[in-house]
UniProtKB/TrEMBL annotation:
Coiled coil: none annotated. To bacterial alkanal monooxygenase alpha and beta chains. This is Luciferase-like monooxygenase. GO terms for molecular function: oxidoreductase activity, acting on paired donors, with incorporation or reduction of molecular oxygen. It comes from the Bacteria. GO terms for cellular component: cytosol. It comes from Parasphingopyxis marina.
């Protein structure tokens, strides 16, 4: 049986009839819950202009989560680097590390986290679209602040000594769902988190990352974490039902229709009236009893040769989300730091 640690990705879902403030309160509550259960990491996502997801600024959420928890590592899943200057990200995460020493992860991605109009609105310079092909150079600059340092002749080299200190380095990760991200992670010697809940065909990509990995100050060996869509319930029928609000949300998003996370009743009614809508975009979803979830996670972990599995889901019912993570933790017998029993 594969051995891997378990972590959590929270997108701060905003349920129908509730507010972003409610969603963020749920995020803090779920983080405390997962910390007590023994999960290894708790990451929060960056999504913009979404009525369904409240986590527009993970850098603002990480500090409160870290202060509300005791042992779990807290991080970004991820910071969308094209929106920011590398130095600003370095300052922010050095400060977070000073706030919660040796518990901060810096997950980095290239995706916009929203549509093209939103991406333009996030830019300081709205006269043109920022090029995505400058991501590798921006990544290299950011990693230099937390690694071997910038070259002496770099115009920002003297700024390294001004970063907030005393908390150790945040642990940088690269996030992705394509070969580009895998190759960048391998070249930079970074641990790699693959979004299987977006692209279920990532095993060859993870294998290429392992093959091309170059040791660095950030890691001596390749390390793969796989983020998978996972809902556990007391019985299989309930788990499948709990997955319906996210299925409706995804189907409408595919049509560029944005809504809050629907209630179970809303989703079941909509799906009954639109039975073919869910066939447009099939993604892997692990739904079932704790034992069924365990077996499927083992299979995915074996497929990717994963060192960690990160569980993500979107539900309108916060108590059902908490119960899902409790059931998985109990099934695995999670111990301190989320080690699989």
């Amino acid at each position: 049986m594969a051995r891997y640690t378990l972590s959590v990705l929270d997108q701060s879902p905003i349920a129908e009839g509730r507010s972003a403030a409610d969603a963020l309160a749920d995020t803090l509550d779920l983080a405390r819950h997962c910390d007590a259960l023994g999960y290894r990491r708790y990451w929060v996502a960056e999504h913009h202009a979404s009525p369904a997801l409240g986590g527009a600024a993970p850098e603002a959420l990480i500090g409160p989560i870290a202060l509300a928890t005791q042992q779990i590592r807290v991080g970004s899943g991820g910071i969308m680097l094209p929106h920011y200057s590398p130095f600003k990200v370095a300052e922010t995460f050095a400060l977070l590390s000073a706030l919660a020493p040796n518990r901060i992860d810096l997950g980095l991605g290239r995706a916009p986290g929203g549509d093209m109009r939103t991406m333009l609105a996030l830019q300081r310079d709205r006269s043109r679209r920022m090029p995505l092909d400058d991501f590798p150079s921006n990544l290299a600059e950011l990693l230099a602040y937390f690694g071997e340092g910038l070259p002496e002749d770099h115009p920002f080299a003297s700024l390294e000594d001004t970063l907030p200190s005393g908390g150790g380095m945040p642990a940088p990760w690269l996030l992705g769902s394509s070969m580009d991200s895998a190759l960048w992670a391998a070249e930079a010697g970074l641990p790699y988190c693959f979004a299987d809940f977006i692209n279920r065909d990532g095993a060859p990509i993870a294998a290429e990352y392992r093959k091309r990995f170059t040791p660095s100050v950030h890691g001596e060996a390749p390390h793969v974490m796989v983020a998978s869509w996972t809902i556990a319930a007391d019985d299989s029928e309930t788990a499948i039902r709990l997955g319906k609000p996210a299925a409706m949300l995804g189907a409408l998003l595919h049509r560029n229709v944005l809504i809050p996370v629907p209630t179970l009743e809303t989703a079941e009614s909509w799906i009954a009236d639109n039975p073919g809508a869910l066939d447009a975009r099939r993604r892997r979803a692990i739904l079932g009893t704790p034992a069924e979830v365990h077996a499927e996670l083992d299979a995915v972990a074996a497929e990717y040769e994963a060192d960690e599995m990160m569980l993500v889901n979107i539900m309108a019912d916060h108590d059902a989300r908490k119960h899902s993570y409790s059931l998985v933790a109990g099934e695995y017998g999670l111990a301190k730091h989320g080690e699989a029993a």
